[in-house]
Amino acid sequence: MKxxxxxxxxxxxxxxxxxxxxxxxxxxxxxxxxxAEDHSEPKIHGAVVTKAGSKNxxxxxxxxxxxxxxxxxxxxxxxxxxxxxxxKPFLDQIATLYDELATIPNDDEPKRNEILKKINELSIAxxxxxxxxxxxxxxxxxxxxxxxxxxxxxxxxxxNSFPPNQLEKWLKIYAERxxxxxxxxxxxxLETVYEERNMYADRMGSKAIEDLFKSIVKKHPYRNxxxxxxxxxxxxxxxxxTKFYKEYYVAGNMGLILVGDFVADEVIPYIKExxxxxxxxxxxxxxxxxxxxxPFKVREFYSGRxxxxxxxxxxxxxxxxxHPDEIALNYCLSILSNESQTGLLDRLRIDNKLxxxxxxQLSLNDMGAIVVVFVPKLMRSLKKAEAETMNVISQLKSGxxxxxxxxxxxxxxxxxxxxxxxxxxxFGNLLVSxxxxxxxxxxxxxxxxxxxxxxxxxxxxxxxxxFIDNRLVFYNKTGFSGKAEKIKKPPYKALxxxxxxxxxxxxxxxxxxxxxxxxxxxxxxxxxxxxxxLQDNVHxxxxxxPVNDIFTLKIKFGYGKNKDKLVExxxxxxxxLGTESKTVGEFRAAMQKLGASYYLTSGRTxxxxxxxxxxxxxxxxxxxxxxxxxxxKSDDKQMTxxxxxxxxxxxxxxxxxxxxxxxxxxxxxxxxxxxxxxxxSLKEVKKLKSDDIVNSxxxxxxxxxxxxxxxxxxxxxxxxxxxxxxxxPENVQPADKSFFEIKDYDSDMISLYDYKKANQTHTLFxxxxxxxxxxxxxxxxxxxxYFGEGMSSIMFHEIRELRSLSYSASARYSFPNRIHLGFxxxxxxxxxxxxxxxxxxxxxxxSLVKHFPRKPELTEVLKKSFKESxxxxxxxxxxxxxxxxxxxxxxxNEDLRKIRYDNINLxxxxxxxxxxxxxxxxxxxxxxxxxxxSKMALDKLKxxxxxxxxxxxxxx
Length: 956
What we know:
By secondary structure, this protein is an alpha+beta fold. The chain has 35 helices and 23 strands. A hairpin with a 4-residue loop joins strand 4 (145-151) and strand 5 (156-162). Residues 1-15 have low confidence and may be disordered.
């Protein structure tokens, strides 16, 4: 039976690979093209990858690969400029001055500031000819969404999604980006990278990861942070970056990945015409032999104080990505810990021997490492927890695990492979990683057979090859030691943006190209999803899965934390509970044998049980789920674990800058309704019984229930199975649709939470608005695009592009949905800025919110962007039923995207300006600052605001 089931699962995977044919070609210049046709939705995901990551940074110039990624958004000699011939002399002088700057010691601040001042003056002069953000605007204008890039240790990727009818223009834009990138706005973008570095420095655990990497990697450049070391960031070199581009951004080292709705043979001529012009050549060969790492000593030990939580790590050297042992090692790691929590390490947590224990593989192109993390129970030692973990590793090496776990993992691996290919972005990322490590698509498909043929002995042999005595052991003891390096605010003048309404000659030529019109693809309420009642207040909603035989199901109970604080404890506690007939381990194993998994989440108005599995086992899976829903068994032994978990959570929250900022924001907007205030305290948890939480779940089950299924089984058959298998209460109550009023204020204010350890200030802002009507809700989509969403918005342009005050800057106005139209909406924005830039950030944001720059030319670009991107923004097939039914519940009878599309003419400067006047202009503006007060110098603010200092934003 098991072999039969696995054959079905493998056949499912094979059917998917047929429907998503992958074609690989090489252009004459050596450029690799990987094309994956997928006609399931009218969208394409495109990415250009170069096999140049942070490991290729020149010695003494760490961070160049990442910084070049930023520069690639600044344009070329044809994009991003109104007159490159006049701009170029200034850029050349700037490059010379940066080379001079690199010769000045970092401690000679007067001389460095003198050079930086000259660079700033030249940058302002050069910016007279720059068109800031034109790369982003061009991509958006032609339907681009999710425009971004990222740098890894081994490669760098530039990517976004777009509609199929814009493919030719997308290829032209991307090919031009790589032809001759220009280092314009270099100083401003470097400041942004400094902000990114400071942001990482403030994140809890980031220093631990950085130091741990240096303990694992002692020779290879992987030891350096991707973003670069501070001392190198202070001495950037445009000439070194130019050399880096010429060496690594050559055709033989690059690839194009397209996944989506196109015909490969039809697009190849366009690809040859565009990317075929890139210079041929091969990148320098990486000297891997120079960086061969030595084995760890037997129990090589390190310790430190990084986070307020005792934790340990055991690390083994393993294999690089693509190694022949990769599959057997994946089995080893999954036998230790897996998604279904049926592994040997998972049992340590379930049996309450450890608070946490997981095993993961760090897989890079030149090396790998196995990382086993363990967290001891309160009042237990790290040494004891290490011994427990090592005992489990010995069990793996000796084969002390069942054949049924291996068989269940076979199914899980195939399911995971199939799920990756459902999403175009995920599939694209998979093809990127394969290209980077030299594997083909055929290699990847062949792995399916290898997953089927791996034996228990293969797994044992791999475990004994890699889990050896030579290992690194790292202990984190509670507390903090050392300070993160920071970069001071430089004395720069802001750049100007006089050409924001202009476009380059390249952009004008692109406009002349004819584009085939493409009909918008909206969610059809009659065809794309179906819904009906199983009984009073129990609804079923279904959607079709056009890709594979994996179903997803959500059972949503309309009762949440607004009504019952205990609801927040349900997901964590139920993770440890079995049923009357099965322990939690037995229940998870039974689900895993069917290729199914489950987990719970909770929110303000709901508790949701999430399930996935194979359609062929849907009936049997629902039978198990019914047992879980009806017969969950309370267990007071697990309450000790709950108490310990919440105690540790509370300790971390008080020391985590991001969590403190979120809690501060919630308190300012919601007051006592904040989820960090209105929650179960540690004292209350200590008094609770397991039955209390189970009874809370029973109350949720007695409220309006919506079951959303996505798979291949028809609506009628799904309803029949659900009626037969799931027993619902007889008198189900209506869902809780309660809503609370946001906090209002009488005047402008600064709310301050002083966190001494912060380098950055989390600078959030909030404008309490008023209730709106349906037209106002419609307008928010347009207002947000104009003012605060994306790289073309006013916020991003003014705060990041021109002044480098924050790594990111965004804002959006939100109304409650149609059901709660009588409640107020509000504007909320966020930026994280270096502490000594806080005043400048507050004053600029205050001006933008209050005085609201009006740039009619920007609305025209965004209007075209909205129309062209309508297909690229269509919900994925797994999202459609929930999206459509939520609209039905609000009283809509058509896709909200269609309503916005049909009302696109509302998107003009006059309407956006009126929205600002009606809902924002005369309303109080509240700044929410979380950071080190002594570094902010708020007494120098030029604008008058009441300051309120908060001490309690979290209820422990």
